[in-house]
Every structure is written in C-alpha cells, then in structure tokens.
What we know:
58% of the residues lie in helices and 2% in strands. It is an all-alpha fold. Strands 1-2 form a two-stranded antiparallel sheet. The radius of gyration is 20 Å and the shape is elongated. The chain starts with 9 loop residues before the first strand and ends in an 8-residue tail after the last helix.
Amino acid sequence: xxxxxxxxxxxxxxxxxxxxxxxxxxxxxxxxxxxxxxxxxxxxxxxxxxxxxxxxxxxxxxxxxxxxxxxxxxxxxxxxxxxxxxxxxxxxxxxxxxxxxxxxxxxxxxxxxxxxxxxxxxxxxxxxxxxxxxxxxxxxxxxxxxxxxxxxxxxxxxxxxxxxxxxxxxxxxxxxxxxxxxxxxxxxxxxxxxxxxxxxxxxxxxxxxxxxxxxxxxxxxxxxxxxxxxxxxxxxxxxxxxxxxxxxxxxxxxxxxxxxxxxxxxxxxxxxxxxxxxxxxxxxxxxxxxxxxxxxxxxx
Length: 300
C-alpha cells in the first residue's frame, strides 16, 4: 500500500480481457509518482500535466478518432502484425463507430420529453459502457503488442471520459480497470492541491457509479481488484490535497469497506509523519485513525 512515503506508488491493473477477446489477462503494474519523462509516447500525449477528460460524447468521438488514426499508422508501419483470434484494429474501430452512434442516440433520447418508441429503443446504458470499455481494452492490448506501453493513457483517458459520461447519465460501471489506471496516471502527474482535490472528487464520482456487484466483489475478493485499488488511491490523493476534510471522508471509506486493510494502511501513513513535513492538521488526522485502528485490532 504505502511504500517509501505517504504519497507512494499508486497501483493500477492491466486490463481484464473483453468477453469476446482471447487476449490473456496481464499481471499487475505499478505507476511511479514521478513518471519517466523520456517514456515513449507516440500518440501525441506528450503535454503534461494531464487534465481530467471531459464527460462529453463529442470529445470522446473526436479523441478516439485522433488516437486511433495515429495508432493505426503505427500498426501499418509495423507491418500489420498477424492476429489469431483477436479482433483487428479495423474491426475495433468499426465497433466503436457503432457504439458512438448509439451513445449519440441515447444522449438525444435522454433530452426528449416524450417516451422513446420501442422500435427506436437502444441497449441499456451500462451494457453500452461495458462494450466501449472492452473495445478500449483490446486496443490497449494491441498497443502493447507494438511495444508502445507508454501510450496506454491514450485509451485510459477515453475510458475515464466514457465512465464519467455514463455515471452522469445514471448508468452503472462494471469494467473499471482502464478508468482506475487512467486516474492513477493523472494522480502521479498532479502536484497542486487544487488539481488533486478535483481528481479526488472525480474518483468519488466513479466509485459512486460502480455497480453494487462489482463493489461487493472488491470488498471480498483479491487485493488487486480495481475497485479496491481506486478506494485506496483516492485516500492517497486525499492526503496529498492536505485537506483534513477529504482525508477523513476517504479514510472513513477505507475503515468501512476494507477493515482488514485499514490498520496497516493507517499505520504505514503514520510512520511517514516522522519523515514528511506535513501540516499539523494533516498529522492529527493520520494519528487519530492510527490510534482508532491499532494493528492488533481484533475484527468481529
């Protein structure tokens, strides 16, 4: 959890493959707080710091088109590597075009006062989101096959924008791995408390939109579940904002949903108080939670 200091490496996961994909699941990766500025980025993402992507379908469609075009050029330059059972880049682009058309229709229908006729009804918004995240996961896997892992954020940023749009339309989020990765990437780049506070609220918005089934899995399954990592990452971001109010809110969530991990989390943070120049009010919050959650605490 905490390694080296109280704003450590934020952990993120490689994507879970889509249902229709045979791409194998990859192992966990960690994102450094200070990313390597020389890390290769060929999809035009050199500008830093990274802003939180907007929840806007026009932005999503335009950014996907730009990113895919640059990726596709790199794919062709590499000789269009032979694929086995994975969908091709062209198939994925066609699928995304169809999805974007449906998202536009949903956006238009949601603004209409009259009920939508049954023959023009579109699939469930949460299902559309899962389809979009699956397409982005497949594209990120193909990007990795080209040795362009430094460009993962090209697809992660789109996942964040799509997740926020779905959340604000009242949909549930199930496939959140790319979104969690992208938010961790932004957190690793953000330094100003104001930017971190904005990111904190974005993380909260995503957490609130996660489907109950997924959040339940996150509480009861493996330690690297993306929902669990997002909850922990949000608490780290809260600490970096130096806002006691946000820290208390985030720490209470850790205590409520991850009681088995809470003692270690708070005590590792407390251990850093001695070596970090935190304001007194920040130290007081960490110390209080550390006292309330001793490492020898017996859970009933």
